[in-house]
Amino acid sequence: MKIAVLPGDGIGTEIVAEAIKVLDALDLPFEMESALVGGTAFEAHGHPLPESTLKLAKEADAILFGAVGDWKYDKLDRPLRPEQAILGLRKNLGLFANFRPAICYEQLVGASSLKPELIAGLDILIIRELTGDIYFGQPRGRRVAADGHFPGAEEAFDTMRYSKPEIERIAHVAFQAARKRSKRVTSVDKANVLETFQFWKDVMTEVGQQYPDVALDHMYVDNAAMQLVKAPKAFDVIVTGNMFGDILSDEASMLTGSIGMLPSASLNAKNQGLYEPSHGSAPDIAGKGVANPLATILSAAMMLRFSLNQEAAAQRIETAVQSVLGQGLRTPDIFSAGTTKVGTAEMGDAVVKAL
Amino acid sequence: MKIAVLPGDGIGTEIVAEAIKVLDALDLPFEMESALVGGTAFEAHGHPLPESTLKLAKEADAILFGAVGDWKYDKLDRPLRPEQAILGLRKNLGLFANFRPAICYEQLVGASSLKPELIAGLDILIIRELTGDIYFGQPRGRRVAADGHFPGAEEAFDTMRYSKPEIERIAHVAFQAARKRSKRVTSVDKANVLETFQFWKDVMTEVGQQYPDVALDHMYVDNAAMQLVKAPKAFDVIVTGNMFGDILSDEASMLTGSIGMLPSASLNAKNQGLYEPSHGSAPDIAGKGVANPLATILSAAMMLRFSLNQEAAAQRIETAVQSVLGQGLRTPDIFSAGTTKVGTAEMGDAVVKAL
Ligand SMILES: CC(C)[C@H](C(=O)O)[C@@H](O)C(=O)O
Ligand SMILES: CC(C)[C@H](C(=O)O)[C@@H](O)C(=O)O
């Protein structure tokens, strides 16, 4: 079980260290190797995703990723910015299936912006296609407009696209995931405006016929953004494209109020996966020992489940996290009166102890 | 003052009737003419935006629009579906500047999904570009993929694009609107991934230099979707493209919990405008006399302000709406214990009385 460890920037190092503590405590035969990624890799090697890091990632069964990015890299040319490392890994490893659970932990209901009755018990799974859509579509760039409102003016453009097999494979992922849950899939599109998403809807419907036991419905993305606020618990599995998924998965995770708790997994066809917390690199609190490591620890659990075939170990970690929450331990981001404030390392230690 | 009245489908007829009641009560020299639009126009003329309706709209100073759409038209070919009428009006009249206020009325704080302290006093203005972006970009369609993950497969595609003058003109609208408010503009983009929105950000920054008194900041769309949930009151004016604006303006209006109260305006360079409620045609309650006419009545107020140069009359309507809320009158969508439930027509009558 080869794990590439890419802590990245900001709080990445701190939170990944805690996840490794937890993995070590499982006493399983992992082979772990670390490499630089993001801004720190740019500083050392002149590129956010150096060849050596990419090679390590490709040869691993799974990647444990922290976070990348810092305001100080904002002025760099786009191809050199930290987040290009994430896009590069997704593309080079073909990580097309992104799993973003939005779960509201019983003990953290109060952290949500939403009224408790709307959010308590929330358990949605957003499945975002991650290697297609307007993120990677060619052509893109700048040019002189040939037509439109201002022919002759300078314009910039991008191409949104999805091919049938790309939609089919993410559809299968969604329907199969729904089978293990409440057997409901909401496919989010903008078929009323976009050719790409009329096609998406058509293909989803077609694939859905192979899953007569799973209920499929379709929703426009603007409506989905509303319904997530109005009645988030009405959703079970949401499947959508790369761009809409970027927006909706972040909206959904913020609904819980405890994004510091939410893991994610990005898988390819061989179940190789990249596992990272749903939150960012939080440069403002980096190095202070206050970041919440639980999302990264729970990402490690997803890694055990999806890429390393260690379901029992995954469940041990998840139970241990539940248990530290039950003990009232909280990093500052999820702290509330009556609970015990702890730092990053203490939280990691507590999870190890609870194992 | 020529007003084209396009009630449309579903509850459109009922809510527009109340707005007209209110306009009539102002005793101003309006010339109003009605026409069919949307599904009802398709049934009568075979097209959701008949030539005669478009002509009427073009020749008017302003359009008072109800809503379009019904499940029963879902099976029609896309060009014949009701929502194409809206897209056609926007395009043909060049209505590039969409104003979508998200206001939380003091008396309706309880209707929100959000905790009262997060939403009370909310007053955001979302300015959405409405005639560009991937909504209208060419080429678009289906074809055989020449490259990408599955060359040779069937694919669908769309083109996202913005030209410099298109971004400039919506930027000016946003900065000028901000000058009348708290002088803060948040431009929402996805510059870390899209060429179109790197350009958007560059041009916004450039235009911003002409407004040194207005603070401009930039935010990625995924982060904006989160911050709207976390701390909506941190925003003042948000300016963004057509697609992101579609999603964020709906999310923001649902945050208030009372979308039945929210008007909208879509203007062109000559201040001709289309005015419509932010909500849809609600076919499930059509004809029952229970729809909330206030968003449409407030849209008529915006019409008086922006297109008809009748600021005093606009304010009279807005004050009257505040007053009926103060009297405790509520349509079912905003009803809560201790208030008085009224129907569509009663609500319109109450506004007239309060004028
Ligand atoms: C950093 C950025 C390119 C990335 C994306 O848009 O996919 C991020 O927002 C995410 O969701 O992982
Ligand atoms: C009906 C649809 C085409 C339209 C849009 O996407 O613009 C609607 O959602 C809106 O926001 O007015």
UniProtKB/TrEMBL annotation, chains A, B:
Catalytic activity: (2R,3S)-3-isopropylmalate + NAD(+) = 4-methyl-2-oxopentanoate + CO2 + NADH
Pathway assignment: Amino-acid biosynthesis; L-leucine biosynthesis; L-leucine from 3-methyl-2-oxobutanoate: step 3/4
Residues annotated as domain Isopropylmalate dehydrogenase-like: 2-351
EC number: 1.1.1.85
Subcellular location: Cytoplasm
Residues binding substrate, per UniProt: R90, R100, R128, D222
Residues involved in Mg(2+) binding: D222, D246, D250
Cofactor field: Mn(2+); Mg(2+)
Metal-binding in keyword set: yes
PROSITE patterns given in the database record: IDH_IMDH
Protein name in UniProt: 3-isopropylmalate dehydrogenase
Gene (name only): leuB
